[in-house]
Amino acid sequence: MESKEPVINVGILTSDVISFVLNGVYQCSNGENHSGEKQVLCKDGKIYFNNQFYDELVFTPVVSSTDFELKDVIIGINFHWERKENQRFGGSLKFIIDNRSLIAINEIGTEDYLTSVISSEMSATASIELLKAHAVISRSWLLKPMMSGNESFTKSANEAEITANEIVVWYERDCHSQFDVCADDHCQRYQGVTKSSVENVKIAIESTKGEVLVSDGKICDARFSKSCGGMSEHFENCWAPIHFPYLTPVYDLLPQTVASLPDLKNQKVANDWIRQSPPSFCNTTDKSILGQVLNNYDQETTDFYRWKVEYSQKELADIISQRSGIDFGEICDLIPLERGDSGRIIRLNIVGTKRSITVGKELEIRKWLSNSHLYSSAFVVDRLEFINNIPQKFTLTGAGWGHGVGLCQIGAAVMGECGYKYQEILQHYFKGASLERFY
Question: Of 385, 347, 438, which Cα lies nearest the Cα of 111?
Answer without folding.
Answer: 438
